[in-house]
Structure formats: C-alpha cells, structure tokens
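Input record (one chain):
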Amino acid sequence: MSALLSTALDLAARTVPTLPLRAGKVPFGNCRTCRDNACGGRPVMLAAGPCACPGVCHGWAAATTDPHTLTSPPWARAWAQAQAVAYHPGGAGLTIVDLDNADAVTWARQHLPATRTVPTTRGEHWIYRGAMQSANAVRPGVDIKSSMSYARWLGPGTGTMTGLPDTVRALTVKAPAPAPVVRPVGVPTGAGGGVCRHRTLAYLNRGIAMAEQQITDATSGVHATVYRTFLAVLSAHGRCGCLTDAHAGRLFAAAQAKGESVRHCTDAWTNARTALGM
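The corresponding structure, as predicted from the sequence alone:
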C-alpha cells in the first residue's frame, strides 16, 4: 500500500472525504464514459446523480470515506499515479481560508479569530469548523475552500480549531450592484388622453415582481434569462419615465443573487437598451 493511500484511508476513518491528485495538484479527469458530463456529472456514492462510474472521475464530488471504494481497482490505479492526497472540506464540515502569501497571512492575523493553521508552500490554511460556499479571490491572496471544492492534505496543523465566524462568511457576500441610471426616451403619448398606463403603481410593481421571479426561478441559462428579462422590462416600462433606478436596482439584485456579477448585469442592461434603440 502506498503512503498516499494509507493517508487517505486514515482520513476516511476520521470521516474526511478524500481523493487522489495527479501532477499539478489537479484531480483526475473524466473517463471516456463520463466525458463532457454525459453520465450526469456526479458519482452515485454521493447520492447526487445517476453516474455509477467506479473510478475517481469527478474531482471534489468523487471524494469518499468508503475504504472499499478507495482501494478498488480503478482507484488503486489512480493512487499509483497520484502525487498528493486531497480532501473535500465541506464534506467534512470544514471551511479553509486559503492564504496565498505573507500579506494575506498578516491580514488574517489582524482580522480573523485564531484557529487551527497548516503551513502551505506560499502561506497558510486556516481551518474552521462549519461548511459554507466556496469562493476564489474574496480579497487579495485569499480563497475560501469548503463546499464543492477540494484542498490538498498538508498535515493536521497546529492550534485549536474554532467555529466558523461570521467574518469569514461575510467574505463571500457580494456588494449590491449599483443601480443603473434609467434614462427614459421621449415618445409621443398614446391615445389615452396623455395618461400613461404605467402610472398605476400596482401595474408597474406587478411587472417588476414578475421579472424578479423570472430571474430567481432560472435553473439554467441565467445570463440569457437576465438579458431577456431586462429587455422585456425596458420594452414595457423604459420609454415613459415610470421605471426608476430603484426598480432597476431590484432587478440587478435578483440577478446577483443568481450569481451574476455587476459587470454582467450592467452589460445586459446596456445591451437591452441598445437593442431597443434607447
């Protein structure tokens, strides 16, 4: 048994899901059957998808605590080529603040509560009890590794592990997007006595609420959904002066909640205005 596999089995016995890493500190790629996620994308051992691939084929999602899986022939072949052991922090109920340089370490010592630390080649891993969403570059030299992520096993570290603080959770909270400036386009009034139908607050608010819900309900193609929704809102409400910055800000907030960046929101808004000749 290789030293790496022995380490993986020891971690698995402590309910830490593990997987091998190949050269370059990256997981093993998809096999032919699973290429391009044709299998559904995740191994059946996680009860998260239809894939029954027996190999170490899905990055962090393949991490396991099952010793039989870790020592099965497909995994044994991977361990024979492996260069390091990785683990899934979120699967172990942990969060790693990955500090990539000396400046980031200094910042952490000034702003984060002390916890268990592990030295890395360029900085430190600060490990807290509790899982959260992962995120890269939450500030210069700082990544968050927890759910849907993996980290290289570099040893148990030193110090007492403490609970995940709100200061770490706050690092992944996006600042609200600045509300776009809404510039109505002057057009002749209709035949309704010069009274705009959008002046009924219930009509306008219902339209904005429906647009927010449409973005929130998107399960795929979020970029396209955001653009189409912005286009529809501007088409209906953007020419008469009824649409305010506050309304647009609500749409931006809904898009950001789905993972859209400020830049994507601004681009979609601008492109929709351009398409409408506004």
